[in-house]
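Translate structure to sequence.
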């Protein structure tokens, strides 16, 4: 290898090693995803402050009265059915439980695995998150 070739290889290696990753580390899953049409129909849906899809996970923020949110439990409930549009749609609601009796306003994030909501006929599914304030649409690409 001549001097110019070695210099080019050196520059490529230095550039490759100096690049920073723009990937976001996904949060850990801390809540269950359940497919149950009967349970879905019983729920009115809990208000979600913020919702975003990160990779194969749905991250939501909930604000409620409580002490510190340590006893809070949230589950993502899906009907199990698919609305066959392009892209297909899945209807989900949040079931939220709190046993805390404090009056402070507390915020907590819950992270759900979306893999059970994939549809084999498509590479993306629109997630329709219904709450008592309306429906939020989120596109899940996989």
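Result:
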């Amino acid at each position: 290898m001549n001097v110019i070739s070695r210099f080019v290889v050196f520059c490529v290696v230095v550039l490759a090693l100096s690049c920073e990753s723009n990937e976001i580390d996904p949060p850990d899953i801390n809540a269950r995803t359940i497919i149950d049409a009967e349970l879905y129909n019983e729920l009115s849906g809990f208000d979600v402050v913020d919702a975003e899809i990160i990779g194969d996970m749905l991250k939501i923020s909930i604000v409620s009265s409580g002490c510190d949110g340590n006893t809070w439990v949230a589950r993502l409930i899906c009907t199990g059915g698919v609305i066959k549009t392009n892209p297909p749609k899945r209807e989900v609601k949040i079931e939220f439980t709190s046993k805390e009796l404090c009056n402070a306003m507390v915020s907590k994030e819950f992270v759900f695995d979306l893999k059970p909501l994939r549809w084999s006929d498509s590479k993306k599914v629109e997630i329709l998150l219904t709450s008592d304030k309306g429906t939020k649409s989120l596109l899940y690409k996989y």
